[in-house]
Design brief:
Blueprint: H1 10-41, H2 44-49, H3 52-61, H4 63-79, H5 84-108, E1 121-123, H6 128-134, H7 138-150, H8 153-162, H9 169-189, E2 195-197, H10 198-214
Parallel strand pairs: 1-2
Length: 237
């Protein structure tokens, strides 16, 4: 650590405070605008946390905070001696994986109308549910298929960028499949009136793999040095 480094200038402190304030105000503004339709739709906290509209609004409101979190993580890494490029890339990847995955999982785990009373449903025959969906209305089929492909797309896109151990399509496919199995198992255990389907696992894993291919040029190479800086060597006297 360089003890001779000068403290942040007043201008930098003001700029940080302004950025943090803008992020909070942006989130508050979106939440305020969403308040009326959410209360009309679901009422109370259920309108915020228990509906798809509520999840979408809260995700949008959280975008400024996510950007601020990525900036703060990158700054902390740079202060610790990490190169600016890797500090920025690692921080954005970490925040992006969480921000781009959590809302989808949240929506998947929303309880249905018969939660706790309807029979638990499991579908273990591959492609049967997918065929039934594709045979239905085209718009509904498109929404369901694309939605399933996007559940772990952010994870598949950014995990190889952040972790060299995941810089492989088969490993990303396996990661997406494991995460999807956990979500489908949670649907069954929590009795959410949803179908735990093997086709959802296949589509979720495929979405992660396709997203990984899209980011292949930015994968972290295995030979890249650790983000932890090496201690400075004291020259011999």
């Amino acid at each position: 650590m360089d003890r001779t480094a000068s403290p942040p200038s007043p201008a930098r402190r003001i700029r940080r405070a302004v950025l943090a304030g803008l992020a909070v105000l942006g989130a508050a503004a979106v939440a305020f605008l969403a308040q009326r339709p959410l209360h009309q739709h679901g009422g109370g906290w259920h309108g915020w946390l228990g509906t798809i509209n509520g999840v979408v609004f809260l995700t949008t409101a959280g975008l400024p905070l996510a950007v601020l979190a990525g900036w703060a993580l990158a700054r902390r890494r740079r202060a610790g001696g990490t190169s600016p490029g890797w500090a920025r890339r690692a921080s954005l990847a970490e925040v992006g994986m969480v921000y781009g995955t959590l809302p989808w999982v949240w929506m998947i785990l929303l309880p249905g109308a018969g939660a706790g009373s309807a029979p638990r449903r499991v579908s273990l025959v591959p492609l049967r549910d997918l065929y039934a969906v594709l045979a239905g209305a085209p718009l509904t089929a498109t929404v369901q298929v694309v939605g399933n492909l996007l559940v772990f797309a952010a994870l598949g896109f950014l995990a190889p960028v952040r972790f060299a151990a995941l810089a492989s399509v088969p490993r990303v496919l396996a990661l997406g499949a494991v995460c999807s199995v956990l979500v489908e198992t949670a649907q069954y255990v929590l009795w959410l009136d949803r179908v735990s389907s093997v086709d959802d696992v296949l589509l979720n894993a495929a979405g992660a793999g396709l997203a990984a291919l899209a980011s292949r040029g930015r994968w972290r190479p295995a030979a890249e040095p650790s983000e932890r800086p090496r201690p400075a060597q004291v020259p011999a006297r």
